[in-house]
Amino acid sequence: MRSIANSLHDQVAERLRELIFDGVLAPGSFLDEIRLCEQLEISRTPLREALKVLVAEGLARHEPRRGCFVAQITERDVDDIFPIIELLEGRAAYEATQKANQADIQALELLHERLTHHAQAGDINEYYAANLSIHEAFITLADNRWLAQSIGDLRKILRLARLQQLHAPGRLQQSLSEHLAVFAALKRRDAPAAEQAMRHHLSAQREALRELSRHHSSRIAL
């Protein structure tokens, strides 16, 4: 049985992840222990244990004599991670296509309807949430714990950047089209096509981030 202390620091770690992913704790920002203890109404011990977890996950970095800071994802990080996540999530789509039953397909149909609705409304935050649910559904359907663990570790880092790519011009509709292509392949029971479509989807995400980065740099230069 897990101890209450372990359970508490796990809860604190999850809360800190939410604050990071929501942008409340911005990349590069100092994680003020006193302020966070007051905000979360906890003592220093579970907070420090939670920060160790985040450092191990790559979501925070520790600097001796300075403390912890929210991690900043670099272009090098993105370039290194995306080819790996393409392979892993492509494989998840392949295995999900092989294992999904009719009830699973119906559940995915509802998720894609929600995704389409948010894309048509131009609601990036809600679209991203639905998008994330679909990716998680494919990983769950793949039913491969090693695949799920590997993807989960990398996606925690990529979540620092992936919402940004939906702000690229035209990206929302492109992303929707890519998702529908993956789902169409799954419904046809075409596992290789589902894998390829998922890999294309993730490759397009990387290109959208690259385009945003170029655009941002040109704006600074102006």
List keywords for this structure.
mainly alpha, Arc Repressor Mutant, subunit A, Four Helix Bundle (Hemerythrin (Met), subunit A), 2 domains, two-stranded antiparallel sheet, 75% helix, disordered N terminus
Task: Describe the protein's architecture and organization.
Residues 1-5 and 217-222 have low confidence and may be disordered. Helices cover 75% and strands 4% of the residues. It has a two-stranded antiparallel ribbon. The longest helix is centred in the last third of the chain and has 31 residues, at 191-221. It is mainly alpha-helical and 222 residues long. It folds into 2 domains: 4-70, Winged helix-like DNA-binding domain superfamily/Winged helix DNA-binding domain (Arc Repressor Mutant, subunit A), CATH 1.10.10.10; 75-221, Four Helix Bundle (Hemerythrin (Met), subunit A) (Up-down Bundle). Residues 6-73 form the HTH gntR-type domain. Pfam families: FCD, GntR. InterPro entries: GntR_C, TF_FadR/GntR_C, Tscrpt_reg_HTH_GntR, WH-like_DNA-bd_sf, WH_DNA-bd_sf. GO terms for molecular function: DNA binding; DNA-binding transcription factor activity.
